[in-house]
Structure formats: C-alpha cells, structure tokens
Design a protein that fits this description.
Layout lengths: L13 H18 L4 H14 L4 H25 L9 H10 L4 H25 L3 H30 L6 H25 L4 H15 L4 H17 L2 H10 L5 H8 L1 H8 L4 H7 L3 H21 L3 H29 L3 H30 L1 H5 L5 H17 L27 H30 L7 H48 L3 H7 L3 H19 L5 H30 L1 E3 L5 E3 L1 H22 L7
Antiparallel strand pairs: 1-2
Helix pairs in contact: 1-3, 2-3, 3-6, 5-6, 5-7, 5-8, 7-8, 9-15, 9-16, 9-18, 10-19, 11-23, 12-15, 12-23, 14-15, 14-18, 15-16, 16-20, 19-20, 19-23, 19-24, 20-21, 20-22, 20-24, 22-23
Length: 613
C-alpha cells in the first residue's frame, strides 16, 4: 500500500528545520538499504530451518523500508534539503549487519526498528509539516508489524541455536541506543523524551520482541543462587577466627549448619512445593526472608547469636538448592542436554562474587561496604538475597503438583547397600565428603597464613571454580574415554595431591596452582558419583537413590566434616598468654591427606562397577 503525502501549506519553520533536517537525512539514508546481504543470509538460513516463505517475507520488509526512505527523501527535497550519500553511523550499522550471518543481522535490525519507534513518535510531535506527520504515523504503523515479524525471526534463530543470546542482544540494544541518543537526542528531547524515558521505551519494545527465554531466566537464577552462598562462604571462617576470636570447633559448628539445612530440606521443601505453593513464589519467599539472618549475622559478635541466625538462614537457604534444580527440570524437556548449561552459571556466580568481593570491592572500592561494621561478605550476601528474591517472581510459573510421595522415600534406596560394590562406594563417598570441609573451612585462613594479601582469598579461591567449569566441559570426554571408574579414580586421586601441597606449606605459587585441582576433585568424583548412582539403581529406584547420595554427600558427610575439621584444627593450634594463635597447618592437612590416600587405595582395590545387562 502506498501513502498519499499531503502538500505542506507553509514553508518549513527555520527553528524546526535546524532541529530536524540533519537528523531526518540520517534516517532517510538508513531506511534506503538495498538489503542484498540480508536477503542472501535469509535464503541460506531458510534452507537450514525449512521456512520456504522467509525470503519472500524479508524481501517485503526491505521494500517497505525503502518506501520509508523515498517518502522522507520526497519531503526533504520539497523543502530544498539535500540528501546524504554516506554517514558513519549508517556505515557502522551496515558493517555490523553483514558480519555474522542472519541471526546477527536480525538482532541489529530489531535494535534499529526499536529505536525508530520513539524517534518517529518524537518527530511527529515536533513537526508542523502535515507531510512529515503523515509519514511518521504511517512508519509507526509499519514498524509495529515489522517488530512482530522480527519476533518470529528471532524465535527461528533461537530454535536453530544461532545468533545472539538474550543478554548479548540487550547489550547491543544499549549500545545502539547510546549512539542514537548522541546523534538524535535533541529531536527526542524536543518530542518529550528524557534519556531514561527513551531507554525504558526501547527496553519495553525489545522485551515484546524477545521476551526473556526460560533458559535465560533459569541461568540468571543459578548465577544469583550461588552468588548469595559464595559471597560469605570462602572467607567467613577467617573472619570468625581472626576478628571474632571463635575457636576452630565453633567455626566448624557454624559451617555444619548449611549441610544440616540440606539434610532437613527434603522433608519439608518438596512437600510445600508439591502441595501448597508454586515453586517460584516459594523460592522468592525463602530468599527474601533469608536476607534477614544474613543482615543480622553481618554485624553479630557473639557465638550464640551467629550460630542461631546462621541456623535460621541455613534452614531457609538449604531448600532452595533442591528447588532451583527442581524448577529447571520442570521447564526443560531435554534436561539431560540442557541442565548442565544452566547449572554451570552457578559456578560462574561463585567466581563472579569472589572477584567482586575480593578485587572489586575490597581493593577497588574499600569504603563502599567498609562503612558498615562487621563482615562485608555477609552484607553483600544479604543484598544479593534480596535481588534474587525479587527476581524469583519473574521465573516461569511452576504450580504445585497437588501430590507428593513420602518425604522418607529416598530411604528405600538403602536396599542397594546389599550390593557390596555400592556399599563400598557409599562408604568412600561419605569419607571423601567429610574431607571436602577441610577445603571449605580452612583454605581461607591457610591462604592468609602463607602470604596472600588480606581480603583476597575469595578472588584466589575463584581459581577452583574456574577449574570446575573447565572440568565439567571435559567430563563427557573423560567418561567416554576412561569410563565411570577411571573418571572417579582421577577425582579421588586429586584429593590427596592437593592436601599434600597444602601440608608442604609452600611455595605460594604451588599452593595457588593446587587450587585448580578442585575441578578434578569435585567434578570427577562428586558429579561422577551422581552418574554412577543413576546407572547402578534400578529404573523405579533412581529418584530414591539420588536422594540418598545427596543426603550422604551434601548432608551427613559435610556435617561430620565441618565438626571434624574444626576439631582437628583446634588440636593443632596453640594460643599463647598474649592471645596470639599459632596454627600448625602441616599437621592439620596431613589428616585429610592420610584419609583420602586410604580412600583412594580402597577405591582402587575394591571398587569394580559391573556393567548392567
């Protein structure tokens, strides 16, 4: 359909001409692209996804954009304004669009059409020319259809696993918005837009075209979930011992509380989510309430107060570890292939918060959290818990199932202990889980003792999570090449190597390098353990078996390990009359070294998983 452009009854007012002419010339040039690269990309992409109508639809879109260009040129020429032959903004847009294929081209086009809506709205408000007002009204009608069409294209791009991810597209949109405001901000401001209002309108339109995908939201959830935990966990033990002067036994008792929360969680969190509350609202409530004990503990100074409030937080946070997994499995039909890609963002969150606290805040902005009394990691954790609690309301709706099995169902897997192979495995797994707490509870104070700078432990310990990500990526290859036994053997042998380096006490570079062994320790043994249990259990008993191994690894093993690590640390620590504490870390780490060597020997000698028929 064409457009009848009305004649302008009067000349163009000079002030309006100075405001609009240069700006309109840029948009006229941008609308006039021949679209040959877009059409070529569209044909190639259409063949891959099987959408025969796509090239014709893209050709129609290009024709409409060229009509917009001709209408603007007609008005500009009618008032004696020359057209542009080239402009750096248009050149940059064209270069971006032809760089990375159809997905990137669509993303750039969407961003351009998004900013066009507030722009033409502003021009329509400002101009006194009937012709220009008519063009703006028609372009806005066309852009509404264009955005709907691009929403379809983006859905094809995502389904084909090409193009920009949601977060990258938002970053691109923000960059393009900044350029448009720098070039056309006077026009937009004259039309009633502040920069904030312009940005808000662009974000609203982009969200309509590309709503946050379920996987994106679940990934952000995992990122924040482990940021809350990682904000305080690596460094809190050092604060309790050096600042609050708690004994190592008291520190171990405090660190045992979260595993207790994980042990209790299966008995009530699943029941609430299955019977009474939607999972996303239950998660929101638990995290919002969880911010309160973190806030209190941040400035608490006595052991009883810290213990009680950390128990409350553990009972609130512990269930969320299971619920975040649950909501992922509920909304991902192909969870076997997708869950790892979502769960890895939890590990990334642990790294990010470690760097944020250890480098960004403590070194870059020490007064930001330093103005509060107490432990800065707890203040950060409380703030992140509030952010996560609010974000949970935007997670996909997951209603209660209105049914639930017995909360003791996982105990039915105990019959698997009749198999000597499984019994040996579970016993070794329990002992190894207890030794994990020597790493979590004592590594922070140990690193400070061997010479790292004060407050930097979370950043250095992020090396362990980085190694975990790399190992997780390589796990399928290891399982295929070495099998489940070989992979678990690599994991269990990495434990004594790490503790041997810790027991040596130096050099510092070797100790820091040994932190990367955490990837092998955790992924090759713990993650592989879940895979082994899934293989060993009968199909009707797999859920119960997974509940049992989770109870042993993340619950009972870590509870006993927390107390045991504190007991051993107290045994090899001396406090003199002046209150100065001396810790013999060599003797301390010889204990988990000896136990993990014993576990490795038992594993090599007796663990022979049999292939199931």
């Amino acid at each position: 359909m064409g457009l009848t452009i009305p004649d302008d009854d009067a000349s163009w007012p000079e002030a309006e001409r100075r405001l609009l002419a240069d700006s309109l010339r840029q948009f006229q040039l941008g609308e006039g692209s021949d679209g040959c690269n877009l059409l070529r990309f569209a044909r190639t992409f259409a063949e891959r996804v099987g959408d025969a109508d796509l090239p014709e639809a893209v050709a129609g879109l290009i024709a409409e954009e060229q009509r917009h260009s001709r209408w603007l040129a007609q008005v500009l020429r009618a008032h004696g304004e020359p057209l542009l032959g080239r402009h750096w903004v248009d050149g940059a847009f064209r270069l971006l669009r032809r760089t990375m294929g159809f997905g990137f081209e669509v993303a750039v086009l969407v961003s351009a059409e998004v900013v066009a809506v507030p722009y033409y709205t502003a021009v329509g408000r400002v101009t006194s020319l009937p012709s220009l007002r008519a063009i703006c009204a028609r372009v806005l009608e066309d852009e509404a259809f264009h955005l709907q069409f691009q929403a379809h294209n983006l859905s094809l791009v995502v389904r084909d696993h090409f193009g920009l991810r949601h977060a990258m597209h938002r970053a691109l949109q923000g960059l393009i918005g900044l350029v448009v405001w720098q070039q056309h901000g006077r026009v937009l401001a004259a039309g009633g837009y502040t920069f904030t209002a312009f940005s808000r309108e662009c974000n609203r339109l982009l969200l309509e075209v590309q709503p946050m995908s379920i996987r994106f939201r679940l990934s952000v959830m995992m990122l924040l979930e482990y940021m809350v935990w990682g904000a305080w966990y690596p460094d809190f033990s050092a604060y309790l011992g050096s600042v609050l002067k708690f004994s190592d036994g008291q520190v171990g008792a405090i660190y045992a509380l979260l595993p207790i929360g994980c042990m209790v969680a299966p008995f009530f969190a699943g029941q609430l989510a299955d019977r009474y509350f939607s999972t996303e609202k239950l998660l929101a409530a638990l995290h919002l309430l969880g911010a309160i004990p973190l806030y209190v503990v941040a400035s608490a100074t006595n052991y009883d107060g810290v213990w009680v409030w950390m128990l409350i937080w553990s009972l609130l946070y512990g269930p969320t570890l299971a619920l975040t997994n649950s909501i992922c499995f509920h909304h991902m039909p192909e969870a076997e292939g997708e869950f790892g890609l979502v769960r890895v963002w939890g590990t990334i969150g642990w790294i990010v918060v470690g760097l944020l606290l250890g480098v960004g805040l403590r070194e870059g902005a020490p007064h930001l959290l330093g103005q509060f009394q107490g432990f800065d990691g707890m203040w950060l954790g409380a703030g992140l818990s509030i952010i996560l609690g609010v974000f949970c309301f935007f997670l996909p709706h997951t209603p209660p199932a209105q049914k639930s099995g017995s909360p003791w169902a996982f105990l039915s897997a105990l019959k698997m202990l009749k198999d000597p192979e499984f019994a040996i495995f579970l016993g070794i797994a329990f002992v190894v889980a207890t030794e994990l707490m020597f790493y979590f509870v004592l590594t922070g104070p140990f690193l400070y003792a061997v010479g790292i700078s004060p407050g930097s432990a979370p950043a250095w310990m992020a090396l362990a999570q980085a190694a975990e990500i790399i190992t997780m990526i390589g796990l399928p290859w290891m399982l295929k090449r070495w099998g489940i036994r070989g992979t678990m053997m690599v994991g269990i042998l990495a434990w004594p190597i790490r503790y041997a380096v810790f027991a040596l006490g130096g050099p510092l570079w070797l100790i820091l390098a040994s932190l990367t062994l955490h990837g092998l320790c955790y992924v090759c043994f713990f993650t592989a353990s879940y895979i082994y249990v899934d293989q060993a259990a009968e199909p009707e008993n797999r859920a119960s078996a997974q509940g049992l191994i989770t109870f042993v690894l993340l619950g009972a093993g870590m509870v006993v390990g927390s107390w045991f690590a504190g007991f051993v640390s107290d045994m090899f620590s001396i406090t003199n009359a002046a209150g100065v504490k001396t810790v013999d870390y060599t003797k301390i780490f010889l204990v988990p070294l000896g136990l993990t060597v014993l576990c490795a020997l038992l594993f090599v000698a007796f663990f022979r998983p049999r292939a199931k028929a």
